[in-house]
Amino acid sequence: MFDSLSGRLERLGASLRSRGRLSDADLDEALAEVRHALLEADVELSVVRAFLDAVAERVRGENVAQSLTPGQHVIKAVHDQLVEVLGGSALKVVYAAKPPTVVLLAGLQGAGKTTTAAKLAAWFKQQGRQPYLVGTDLQRPAAVEQLRVLAASIGVDVYSDPSDPVSVARAGVAEALRLGRDVVIIDTAGRLAIDEALMAEVRAISAATSPHYTFLVIDAVTGQDAVHTARAFHESLELSGIVVTKLDYDARGGAVLSARGVVGRPVVFASTGEKIADFDLFHPDRMASRILGMGDIMSLIEQAERSMDPEAMAESAQRMMSGAFTLDDFMAQLNQIRRMGSLGGLMRLMPGMTRDMREAAKNVDDGQLNKIEAIIRSMTRLERRDPSIIDGSRRSRIAKGSGSSVTAVNQLLKQFDQMKKMMKQMGGGTMPSLPGGMGKMAQMAARGAAARGESLPAGFEALASGMKSGAPAPAPSGGAKGKKKKGGRVTPPKQR
Amino acid sequence: MIVLWIVLALVVVVIGLVLVVRSRRRRPASPVLSAPRVAMPDVLVTQVAPRPEIDDGPGLDRRLAASRTIFDRVRSITSVGALSTEQLDVVEEVLLRSDVGVSTTNALLEQLRTDGAPAGVAGAIREALMSSLTADRSVRTRADEGRVPVWLFVGVNGVGKTTTIGKLAWHETQAGRSVVLAAGDTFRAAAADQLQLWADRTGADIVRAAEGADPGSVIHDALGRAQARHADLVLADTAGRRANSTNLLDELAKIRRVADRGPGQVVETFMVLDATTGQNALSQAREFLAAAEVTGIVLTKLDGTARGGIVVAIERELGIPVKFVGVGERAKDLLVFDPTAFVDSLLSA
User: Fold this and answer.
1) What is the pLDDT of residues B57-97, one digit of tens each?
2) Can the peptide bond before residue A100 be classed as cis, meaning omega within 30 degrees of 0?
3) Right CATH number for A101-294 from 3.40.50.300, 3.90.470.20, 3.40.50.10860, 3.20.20.210?
4) Is there a smaller number of Cβ atoms within 10 Å at the N or the C end of chain B?
5) Which of A129, A187, A224, A425 to mutate against chain B (most B CBs within 10 Å)?
6) CA of A88 to nearest chain B CA: how many angstroms apart?
7) What number is the ipTM of this complex?
8) CATH homologous superfamily of A297-427
9) Which residue, A220, A92, A186, is CA-closest to B40?
10) pTM above 0.80, yes or no
11) Facing residue for A261 by CB, picked from B9, B54, B157
């Protein structure tokens, strides 16, 4: 649904293409699509209306750029408006001059506050800070225990005692000061916005600790109620930002838009999976691209850089390009990728994925990776270096050894071979034609380049120029060459 | 083996991109890419960076205020017979706001359009909604002779599965039945501890295992204990899981098979659903129905401002009825679902 919003608008745009300019009727039709998609994505009704008004204004107010079709024009307007509503740019966390910097988390029951507290602590730790967790949820049975277990897994200390939430919070901050920790994260009990007693309690916690940041933790699959919740918490606590959780449930996450739209505070962090690593600063422009189904290449790169070993990567890239890529290299990379977080989450960030591939990606997990690894590990060193020696009897041995089937082994070998050829092509300066939607990626890159003057999402520019300069090719432009060879499957970036 | 393609593609693309970005970063001319992750200045700023305030614009606020009285407007539509476009718009707004969803709303509007409103608009919507909530809501507590009845609880993370089990354990023990709790959520930290506290509170028996243990084995052990002690009912918890992962759903299907084997017989599979959930609830229900044969929904957190209208869509499309609703933290805040009361609260949104 939301995934295909850009697709729907494109299709709609195709029928308008010849006319060059959007009529009011065309615009209404396009906006009806957008409305439907936004509502299906749980964006709150009044936010939807305000959004549509703004998009219409944008479309009418701007001159239609030569390089954009009417469909793309609407997409761009929707994208720009999404970016604006989602917050313009990412929030930069600024630390208190006199530590500790206090962060307060609040939200409804089950939004994921406790898990977020631990993930946030891990994030601060990664930033070189010494975080400290304070568990004030004395209400839900074993909530503090949950925080302790999570905190232990990331090596962060937790403060809590069974007195009452306000004194626990106060004592926790004092303890952090004594221990010299520079960031304190206060987890609070889940509460309903209309529960006056509990809202008063969280206000008291806030007053006792004067947090530098107060974040509302909100579930990405929240429906129309997101607005009520966000508003009520904002009125009570003066939020500095929003943390959205469970974004892996649903790529649409309309609640983000609703909450952002109504409280006017930025979405600061986003949580996209069960692993501690599935958590990062929220980037509105990237989310906007994702909402439109355009992928999010910048997040992918950042995630890769954070968890991969650059030296090893450069080395294997060298081997890839020269065609000397072995199954050992592949396995090493597999493990690197694994460290980046769940594969499904990574795939969602990839632009140009077809629906089928996205669906398949959702189901990729460590178990399936284990199977691939098992097959490779069941090969001898010689076989891994030179898979061409693997004959029938070796195949059945490998299949037995890895507990898989000969078919699976065959598939792996065949696809590895194809991939290797493609890599070589890439090294030779030719754009590979990847299966399915992957080829589309290059097209999108080209579109990004074509519309550079129109400032399409940053990720595309990086991608577009990446595709151009990415191949250290003898040929001046890999893209152009690709077009000749592949018969139009790859559209070259426009030369300007 | 599309998985392999994905992995391979990812390897190639990620490595390629990272290298490109790195090589560009070495050159000074890429402001966009080199901006993030610089050292943060140590100054106290409690205010976030100023940004365009798009909230609280006159349009938004006025509209929200308008929505509060929307059902009053519906009620004020006293005309009988065919409905005007404007009236239908009001009805649409009420339904959309309570999370009923676009397609169900359109279907209900179509119904209104064809049937008209012989007894007033308010009555007509109520009628239309009630006609969507007609499934069988009885709760099965008995299994075949010699087998132990099991209630299995499934749902996504944070909807209140464990709390719901605690509350139902209280109800069932109050009703004089002996209950065994199976702490099948071996994934979330301290989930078993949470259930243990409910067991202590209600006097129910509990079977638990270490974190990371196989949930099937926990439920299997609980069945054994229930049989040995002639317990009347087993309430089996499961870990919260997103509904768009085949692997997690397969695991759930396996848990259900284990619970339905030997002495056990799954007589009810409850999907616990948070009332604040929007359209995603429909895909949750669809997936859990396929994986674990869901027989009923427990709609939790109805004491907030959320209306939980999505259950109308779920019952219309998938035929899964709501059987219980959670309206608070206390054990007795779990009620048997009453369609009439629910529709009233939906329309008073």
Assistant:
1) 333 333 334 344 445 555 555 555 667 777 788 888 888 98
2) yes
3) 3.40.50.300
4) N
5) A224
6) 7
7) 0.73
8) Signal recognition particle, SRP54 subunit, M-domain (1.10.260.30)
9) A92
10) no
11) B54
